[in-house]
Amino acid sequence: MADSDGTVADGVVADGVVADGVVADEAVADDDAAGSGGGVAACPRCGLRDRVLGVTAAYLGAKSTRREETGTGDDQKVSVAEENSALAQALAPAPPAPDGENAGCWAASLLVISVGTFIWGALAGMWFERDLATRFVATGNGDGHFVVDSAYPVLGWISGATLAAGLLLLAGSALRKAIWRRRSRPGRAAADRAWSAGWYCARCGTAHFTLGPAMSLHEFRVRVWSAGGYGNKAARYPAI
Question: What tens digit of pLDDT does each residue of 154-181 get?
């Protein structure tokens, strides 16, 4: 069945390109037919080779490492994070994995609220040891009397609701990651073959296969991702 972006999910691509390794095999066959012997394939648009790199090299070259240092002396901490430029993101061989960071932060906050509310109610004797809820109230003439604070069942509801919400967020995040792995892993090898057979021209900002036409980075993404069987995802994650 065709998607709105012109790709056909689960292994078939528009324009007669069939996924599951066929794109990669055609690209490799083109290299052999051209007799390039591992040479650089000239850009079909500008006809030059000096700014052409293999897609793998262009992708790795577009990644960067950020180093941060905080504190001084024994308290100094160093963190290193890898960052992807816009070009690296556009040349990615697969859709990004679902980001569970936000869900994890919200889930942790909800769990803290749940545990805190539960402990607060327990220590105040609001639902377990009701004797702890008894307190002495002094009157104006020096006398007084004992009163028992009423229970606060709303605290129990808050604790239970936030606990359930936090667990549901964690479960939903784990489920999305599992679905992503199940859908992307089977065809990743075929996508990688097509991806590594491609070339990127830094002068034109286009990608191409040997003996093939110049493509926009999004067209190249559709070809590669379709080889892996997830070309329908390209509409959701457009390239540059």
Answer: 777 788 888 888 888 888 888 888 887 7
Radius of gyration of the chain (CA): 30
Q: Are 28 and 195 in contact (CB under 8 A)?
A: no
Instruction: Estimate to the nearest angstrom the gap between the alpha carbon of 158 and the chain centroid.
Output: 31
Give me the helices (H) in 91-144, please. 101-123
Phi–psi pair at 206, nearest 5 degrees: -125, 165
At a CB cut-off of 8 Å and minimum separation 6, what does 224 contact?
23, 93, 191, 194, 195, 198
Q: Six-digit token pair at 87?
A: 């070009």
Alpha-carbon span 211 to 204, nearest angstrom:
17
Closest CA to 79 of 66, 91, 92, 88: 66
Interval 3-16: pLDDT, tens: 434 333 343 333 33
**Could you give the CA distance from residue 106 to residue 170 in angstroms, rounded to a whole number?**
9
What tokens appear for 46 in the block?
A: 């500008």
Q: Is 116 helix (H, G, I), strand (E, B) or coil?
A: helix
Distance CA 215, CA 166 (A): 45
Question: Which one-letter DSSP state was computed for residue 45?
Answer: T
Tokens of 179: 């679905």
How many other C-beta atoms are found inside a 10 Å radius of the C-beta of residue 233?
A: 23
218 CB-near residues (< 8 Å, 6+ apart): 90, 234, 238, 239, 240
What is the spatial distance between Cα 209 and Cα 197, in angstroms, rounded to a whole number?
7
